[in-house]
TrEMBL record:
Keywords, ordered alphabetically: Oxidoreductase
Organism: Streptomyces ossamyceticus
UniProt EC number: 1.2.1.-
InterPro entries, A to Z: Ald_DH/histidinol_DH, Ald_DH_C, Ald_DH_CS_GLU, Ald_DH_N, Aldehyde_DH_dom, Aldehyde_DH_Superfamily
Active site: E251
Name the record gives this protein: NAD-dependent succinate-semialdehyde dehydrogenase
Superkingdom in the source lineage: Bacteria
A GO term for molecular function: oxidoreductase activity
Domain Aldehyde dehydrogenase: 14-472
Pfam family, one: Aldedh
Oxidoreductase found in the keyword field: yes
Length: 479
């Protein structure tokens, strides 16, 4: 921890908060304080904004190849420091080291992907239909951006936003989640080492998000907001962005259905369920939330899933052999406890787990519930924990209707061996992404995002850079 930056990163320099404030960073496995970091206020946010605005014009004119090479160097540094970054992430967030190493690789890949996209920004040329003008289309950076990242994937959500912004030629103010600021500060140090010019990336760690972000959004100099977090906070940020007509990208909550048909390969389905549910201890917007299992296979599926979930080892993420680390904090664990208790009160049967262990830390055991009442609170709430809630269905139309009966639409999972049904059901689901006979959809080369109240825009893939670019049309008379 001694080598990890703990100050704000503004204009290429490490600085304390203007008022000297600091905030604690806790270890969710023990509840102990890891360190204190600078706690930014409005003056610090203004300084970060000014640095980003001052750097924007020169950065926008920087050659695409130069931007590409900075991202490539940063990618290589991240890969070289996988263990160091994984230990840092496990300390502040709790996930097991194996998962943390996986996230480091995932995070690095966004930088490699967008290093390649930086040199492929193009426009267009043609003659307009009336023959009077030529049309020249160019693409240019949208301008200074505010990037707000969550705590559940503290490194990857940073690179998923920073990568396309750098590639497009945008400067940034990054506000990481207060629970996990260290990964973002380490990332800023890596980018500085990789040659990113001063002021292009500025990082403000803060426990005062409203005081820091609202003035930036309403002030008119920030031209782009990219946010990953809850739908409730997303709505608030959209309202704050309206005054200055700030362009927005929103990756919000999910309530993913996981559908197992009677013809599904149950080995594949259980394997997929373990990934879709237990990745990141269930603390993921893509986590399977509602398990709809055909009546004819629900008993066998539930038995197998409970057996697999019950075999997972719970403990501190740094301990060898641990599969499931702590939840992020006591508030997160308390929410899971309340949701499980409500489901049980409504008649759900606990196949495994369901009891909070004694001792320090924010641990909760992998839990499988069957016979869940559709009116249970966990049916219309993001669980964000290691709880699989199983319901039954008999008919395809019925399960599609129930799967779509939610304001969210991020991802859905479908398990069936019938090609026609697989395509038909996938097309009927009101989601931005579908995992077909797989529990993992996230990939830097694929467009990530949802519909309905799960967000606006897409991150990653070839379209990920589009969120940070504007078109300009130039009319040139013919002849």
């Amino acid at each position: 921890m001694t080598d990890t930056p703990t100050q704000l990163f503004i204009g290429g320099a490490w600085v304390d908060a203007a008022d000297g404030a600091t905030m604690a960073v806790d270890d969710p496995a023990t509840g102990e304080i890891l360190c204190h970091v600078a706690d930014a206020g409005p003056k610090d946010a203004q300084r970060a904004e000014e640095a980003a605005v001052a750097a924007q014009e020169k950065w926008a004119r920087t050659a695409p190849r130069a931007r590409s090479e900075i991202l490539r160097r940063a990618y290589e540094i991240i890969v070289e420091r996988t263990d160091e970054l994984a230990h840092l992430m496990t300390a502040e967030m709790g996930k097991p080291l194996a998962e943390a190493r996986g996230e480091v690789a995932y995070a690095a890949e966004f930088f490699r992907w967008f290093s390649e996209e930086a040199v492929r920004i193009d426009g267009g040329h043609g003659t307009l239909p009336d023959g009077r003008n030529r049309m020249l289309l160019s693409r240019r950076p949208v301008g200074p951006c505010l990037l707000i990242t969550p705590w559940n994937f503290p490194l990857a959500m940073g690179t998923r936003k920073i990568g396309p912004a750098i590639a497009a030629g945008c400067t940034m103010v990054l506000k990481p989640a207060p629970q996990t600021p260290l990964s973002s500060l380490a990332l800023a140090a890596i980018l500085k080492e990789a040659g990113l010019p001063d002021g292009v990336l500025n990082v403000v760690t803060t426990s005062r998000a409203g005081e820091v972000c609202e003035p930036l959004l309403r002030g008119g100099r920030i031209r782009k907001l990219s946010f990953t977090g809850s739908t409730g906070v997303g709505r608030l940020l959209l309202a704050q962005s309206a005054d200055a007509v700030v362009r927005t990208s929103m990756e919000l909550g999910g309530n993913a259905p996981f559908i197992v048909f009677e013809d599904a390969d149950l080995d594949k389905a259980v394997d997929g369920a373990m990934v879709a549910k237990m990745r990141n201890m269930g603390e993921a917007c893509t986590a399977a939330n509602r398990f709809f299992v055909h009546t004819s296979v629900v008993e066998e599926f539930g038995r197998r899933l409970a057996e697999r979930m019950g075999a997972l080892v719970v403990g501190p993420g740094t301990r060898d052999g641990v599969d499931v680390g702590p939840l992020i904090d006591r508030g997160g664990r308390g929410k899971v406890e309340e949701l499980v208790a409500d489901a049980v009160e409504r008649g759900a049967r606990v196949l495994v787990g369901g009891r909070t262990p004694e001792g320090p830390g924010c641990f909760y055991p992998p839990t499988v519930l069957t016979g869940v009442d559709p009116g249970s609170r966990l049916m219309d709430t993001e669980i964000f924990g290691p709880v699989a809630a199983i319901l039954t269905f008999d008919d395809e139309d019925e399960v599609v209707r129930r799967a779509n009966d939610t304001p969210w639409g991020l991802v859905g999972y479908v398990f069936t061996e019938g090609l026609d049904r697989a395509l038909r059901v996938s097309e009927r689901l009101e989601v931005g992404m579908v995992g077909l006979n797989t529990g993992l959809v996230s990939n830097p080369a694929a467009p990530f995002g949802g519909v309905k109240q799960s967000g606006l825009g897409r991150e990653g893939g070839r379209v990920g850079i589009d969120e940070f670019l504007e078109y300009q049309y130039l009319a040139v008379p013919v002849g």
